[in-house]
Amino acid sequence: MTNADFEKIVDTSDEWIITRTGIKERRIADNSITTSDMSVAACRQAMDMAGCSNDEIELLITGTVTPDYRLPSNACVVQEKMGLPNAAAFDILAACAGFLGGLSIAQSYIETGKYKKILVVGVEKLSSFTNYKDRNTCVLFGDAAGAVVLEASEESSGIISTFVKSDGRYRTLLWSEIGGSLHPHQQGVDPLGRDKIMMNGSDVFKVAVREMANAAARVIKDAGLTSSDIALFIPHQANIRIMEALAKRLHISMDRVFKNIDRYGNTSAASVPLALDEANRQGRIKPGDHIVMVAFGGGLIWGSALVKW
Ligand code: COA
To answer: Among 39, 36, 173, 60, which residue's Cα sits nearest to residue 109?
Structure first.
């Protein structure tokens, strides 16, 4: 869906969207394609890349706010569709930080020796949850999935440090008011769009820049490194101006910040694994490189991970 497509449905312009967000187009899944379908496609590609068979997976964690059903979890649907007989499967609700939250949980399970092979998926069908009458939000979001296989290893490479933090006092800056147990969904569509994503963009922007910079600095410090040791930063693709402000705070140039927001928009939990995969396939990450992934989202919640490739 291009910016020109949005000019036809809300009062906006290609120029406004590009200047304020950096987004030119996003991918919108067909009605027949579900969040679990996109998850399966991403998991299959990750498992092929890792040379990993279905029965080796012991845990499947999905980060998503748009599961196929309210119950069961997206992870259990994916488990059934893929056939993962030896896995436990559950979702985490950490919005755009869902992939990094999942990575942090997986790292802990692997470090304690509980599981040896874990699939972590970040996936969203945000088009099912977007108010296409609200120009403040609808131009931002797209659909996507990304997945990684993590395994126990004696090598010095891999996840070196992770960090997750949240502050529920900001919960109404980015939220959906209707559809939970407090205000159960009624028949029909809420005329005010409160069953869809609602956001105070400028306030989210400020917290995002501050806390993503803190989260990135934290994993770099925990790893005993400095930002000059980091070959590539892979931030959540929410807004090009947020990424630029983040780079400024971390005193790094934008050529060390991976960007693909122009083609996908904000894909929430899928954004970081999608960017990681593209960066890898483009040869932007070499063995031995240190990379930092960092994200923030509704909660508000934010997280980061430092990986030696
Ligand atoms: N097209 C044209 N005008 C738009 C618009 C659109 N799609 N969306 C908002 N505007 C208007 C607003 O109505 C406002 O008009 P007004 O001054 O007449 O009231 C004006 O643009 C400025 O709005 P503002 O919200 O101050 O713009 P901004 O520079 O903060 O940019 C965001 C808006 C949403 C792009 C920006 O705040 C942002 O990216 N925030 C972070 C959001 C985010 O990342 N959310 C996901 C977190 S995971």
So the answer is: 60
Ligand 1 pocket check: which of 136, 167, 199, 236 to mutate, most ligand atoms within 8 Å of Cβ? 136
pLDDT, one tens digit per residue, over 176-214 is: 999 999 998 877 778 889 999 999 999 999 999 999 999
Give, for ligand 1, the residue of 12, 13, 166, 205 to mutate: max count of ligand atoms closer than 8 Å to Cβ: 205
Please provide the CATH number assigned to the domain covering 159-308. Answer: 3.40.47.10
Tell me, yes or no, if 96 is annotated catalytic: yes
Task: Give me the architecture of the 3-156 domain, per CATH.
Answer: 3-Layer(aba) Sandwich (3.40)
The residue contributing the CA closest to ligand 1 atom 1 is 12
Mean pLDDT, the chain, whole residue set: 97
Please report, to the nearest 10 degrees, the dihedral formed by the alpha carbons of residues 21, 25, 29, 30 taken in order.
140
CA triple 204-210-214, angle to 5 deg: 135
64, 122 Cβ separation under 8 angstroms: yes
